[in-house]
C-alpha cells in the first residue's frame, strides 16, 4: 500500500464520516452528491493506506454508531421509497389525490399530495419516523463508538434540515470533550445573507445550525473562498467576545467532473437542437426566486423586441415560490417558438442540451458554488454569468459576466456574441477541466489532518488558512 508522506502532521488512528441524512435520501444532486462522492474518495484513500480506512457512521441520541449490514439494507429500502414515494401508495389514494388537485388547481396542494420523484410531500413525516426507527434499531444492536484523542470525525451532511438540526451537535460536543477532532463542511450562508429567499423561520433555523457548528467544530471547511470569507466575517457578529467558536476556517474545492451518461434522448429534445444556426441558449437551474428567471426573461423579451432571432431553453425542476414566473413562461407568446421549457430531463438528455446549446446563461442572484458554470465550461460553451463574487471565483476568466441591475447588460453581451458568430461561426472556446472528486477529497483530507495535528498536539489556536 502507498503511504502518503505528511511531514509534521499527526495521523489519527480512526477516521469517521457522518452521513445520517444522505443515507436516507435517494437524491444524487446537491448535498447528497457531495457527501456520497467525498465518502467514496476518502474511503479510496483509506484502501490505499494513505489514511485509516474511514468508517461511515450515523448519529443517534447524542452518540455516533457505525453502520452495519442490517442498517444498510433497511436504509436501502428507505431510499427506494424516497425515490418515488407515490409508487408505495394505493391506486385509490393516487386517484383521490389527483381528483382533488384537478378540482382545486392549486400547485402547492399537488406538490404535497402528489410529490414528484425524489420528493416526499405529505409523506415527509412518516419517512422521518421510519428513518428514526431504523437508527434506533442500529443503536439497540450496537454499542456507540467510544471516541478519543486519536479520532477524526468529518461532518459533511445537511445538518440544518429540520429533522437533523439538533441531533448531530450533542454527539459532536461529546466527541470533542473526549478529545476527538471534529471537522464540519459548510456549503453557503444564503439563509443568512439573503433571508428573503427562505423566510424568517428557515433563517432562524439556519442561524441555530451555524452557531452549533461553530461551537462544536475544530475546523470549518467552506466549499469556496467566497463562503469561507463570509463565515469569517459573520461569526464575530454572533458572539464578538466568544472564544468558544471555531476560528480555524478554511476552504476546499468541490469535485465537478462529469461522467458521460449514455441513454436515449427523446425526439422533442433532439429536434429542439437540430438546426445549428437556431440552437437555443440554455439555462439550467431549478425554478426558484434566487435563480433570477425574471431577469432572464426580461432580457430575452428585449432581444426579441429588438428583432434578434434567438432562442432560449429553460431546463430545471419547478420549485416553490415561483408560480408567477412559471405562469409567465407558460403563457408567453414565444413558448414553443423561441422559448422552451423542459422540466423532466434525464441526465443523458441534460448532457445532450449542454453539448448542443448555442451558449449557456446563468443569471443567479446568489450561490454557494454554481455547478452549471463548471458544467458549461466542461462542454466548451460560451458561458454568460451574473457578476457575483462566487461566480467570479468559479468562472475565473473563462466566462462573460453581466451586471444584475439592468437586463440590458445581458442583452448587450448576447448581441456581441451573435455578431462574433457571424464573423466566426465556429470559434474555439476554452474547455475547463474540472476538479476531480479525488483532488477535492485530498484537499479536504489535508486540511482535516492539519486541524487534527493542532488538536492532538496542543490547545486550539487561531488558524486562518487558505
UniProtKB/TrEMBL annotation:
Coiled coil residues, start to end: none
Keyword annotations from UniProtKB, A to Z: Transferase
Domain Glycosyl transferase family stretches: 275-418
GO molecular function, one term: glycosyltransferase activity
Highest taxon listed in the record's lineage: Bacteria
Pfam family, one: Glycos_transf_1
InterPro entries xref list: Glyco_trans_1
Listed name of the protein: Glycosyl transferases group 1
UniProt source species: Aureliella helgolandensis
Lineage of the organism: Bacteria, Pseudomonadati, Planctomycetota, Planctomycetia, Pirellulales
